[in-house]
Amino acid sequence: MNQDQKNExxxxxxxxxxxxxxxxxTFDKHGNLFIGEVKSFLLGETEVAFIxxxx
Length: 55
Fold this sequence. Notes:
By secondary structure, this protein is α+β, with helices and mostly antiparallel strands. Helix content is about 35%, strand content about 30%. Strand 1 and strand 2 (about 45-55) form a beta hairpin.
């Protein structure tokens, strides 16, 4: 895993932990493409998150 991929994984982990709490992800390293996206919003008093990843 190159440095850019490590940075993407670190950023992904920080984003997912903000939404899900203490959560760990790993990347299988077989592919070079990392996909990770977190979008969240409040629906009334409930936080709703849309998570897309291949981690």
